[in-house]
Amino acid sequence: MALFSFLDKEHSLAKPGHNRWLIPPAALAIHLCIGQIYAYSVFNRPMTQVIGITESTDLDWKLTTLGWIFSMALFTLGASAAIFGKWLEQVGPRMAMFVSAICFSGGFFVAALGVYSHQIWLVYLGHGFLGGIGLGLGYISPVSTLIKWFPDKPGMATGMAIMGFGGGAMIASPLSVMLMDAFRSINSIGVAETFLCMGAIYLTFMMFGVFTIRIPSRDWKPAGWQPGITSKNSTEKNSYVGADGAVRTFQFYLLFAVLMLNVTAGIGVLGQASVMIQEMFSVESVGEERAVNAAVAGGFVGLLSLFNMVGRFLWSSLSDRIGRKNTYHVFFLLGTALYVAIPTIGDLGSILFFVVFFGIIITMYGGGFATIPAYLADLFGTSQVGAIHGRLLLAWSAAAILGPVLVNYIRAYQIETLLLPPAEVYSITMYIMAGLLIIGFISNSLVKPVAPEHFIAQDLTADMLTEINNSKKETSDKAVTNTSIDKFDLRMPIAWIFVGIPLLWGVTQTLIKSLALFI
């Protein structure tokens, strides 16, 4: 349709001289929004009081009923990323980000109707299914574009965007609470109104990313950069492995295991962080003076979100220097040592070391997400890395089930069957997590370069011919500059301020709340 022609891939092709530092804010605009899913738990208790307003009634939803929303959203994230990954590479990031914005924000509107009419299936449809599709498309849509704009620093580039997914919760959590408080009345808990407001905010914010994103021409490169010289991990630029071919390689399944095992260890902790710190530092175990209550535990959860965000940028940037394989070696070896040490830290009653150790673990959890796209690009090339990344994210779906199940069921078995006190039930879990990381280390060690027969010559593809024609059309027969120096562009600081202000606000709120851990 002509009305939506601005979403076409050829209309998002960058003109010569476009400053590539305008691309990360476009990606952050998407990821800071979809990262809200990590803060969804703030709605759980209010949604159990939609009918009763001040307390739950027999007609209200149960927490177990609401718990499926988060699981459905994460499962749909992985599934939609896998299904639509190739479509993303065909239509370009602008179209994919637009659909992501419509689905994600639309999910809030549908869920608001579900809360207002008290129909749980509408909430599942809105936040679980539509929102999950928005999550999947929004997560992968900027990744391959960033790698193409930053072939000299692919880890840093993807880290800048994906850190937004970790930081989105720090914005969404206090924002959600503020809105629910503002809309609460004697007749409403304020959830439906909050969903409508957040849907409108996220739609506006994500559209900034849609209109700002650009893709480089096929022969574009940063000034002074040569493939295989400044980036020793890069594959040859004139060839790549297609998404269908990648899933037929042993390397894909090794990386699937690497991501799944790293995420399993981290997500199991994130899902039970509040309960875990309260039980390990309870009145019975450390005394009333040093015991951790629910409010302090909330500060711990917020601090983990900050570690999650920072780790995504720091570790992925470091991977540009030491290599992706070595970075994951650090994740697995250091993570194993920290998990083994956690029970001892709990016995010593040191909350400072407990917070620091888990903070480091969560940086590696986030760093694993941010580093994996560049790892894929190293092995398979950049041409279809978005599609390959989408299929690999099914490992996240599996880990989202495996991690919490391990922590929750082992804890329940030890309390209910072995009759152990809650403060002592996490030791076995920590050792199991350490064992999973050892398996991940072995899997990562087995990763080797992809055999040449899996590669496709890029200059023989119809995709390249189409892009060259589009490039000619976009530049109106002007000579295409295939190298670019990052010249100052007034739009760049404006774009960074636009995404930086809400992120800074979220970080500030998190730091204020986390002070209770140490005071």
Description:
Mean pLDDT is 84; it is low at 229-236, 460-468 and 471-481. The protein contains 19 helices and 4 strands. With 519 residues, the chain is mainly α. The protein has one domain (16-517): Growth Hormone, Chain: A (Up-down Bundle). Strands 1-4 form a two-stranded parallel sheet. Strands 2-3 form a two-stranded antiparallel ribbon. The N and C termini lie far apart (60 Å).
Topology:
Blueprint: H1 23-34, H2 44-47, H3 63-91, H4 93-117, H5 120-140, H6 143-149, H7 154-183, H8 191-212, E1 221-222, E2 239-240, H9 243-246, H10 250-280, H11 283-286, H12 294-322, H13 324-348, H14 351-380, H15 385-392, H16 394-416, H17 427-445, E3 456-457, H18 462-474, E4 483-484, H19 491-514
Parallel strand pairs: 1-4
Antiparallel strand pairs: 2-3
Helix pairs in contact: 1-7, 1-8, 1-19, 3-4, 3-5, 3-15, 3-16, 4-5, 4-8, 6-7, 7-8, 7-12, 7-14, 7-19, 10-12, 10-14, 10-16, 10-17, 12-13, 12-14, 12-19, 13-14, 13-17, 14-15
Radius of gyration, taken over Cα atoms and rounded to an integer in Å: 23 Å
Q: Give the % helix.
A: 55-70%
SS field, number of helical segments: 19
- Unreliable stretches covering 5 or more consecutive residues: 229-236, 460-468, 471-481
Give the strand line-up of the largest sheet.
Answer: 1-4
Let me know the number of strands.
Answer: 4
What descriptive keywords fit this protein?
about 525 residues; globular; Growth Hormone, Chain: A; mainly alpha; about 0% strand
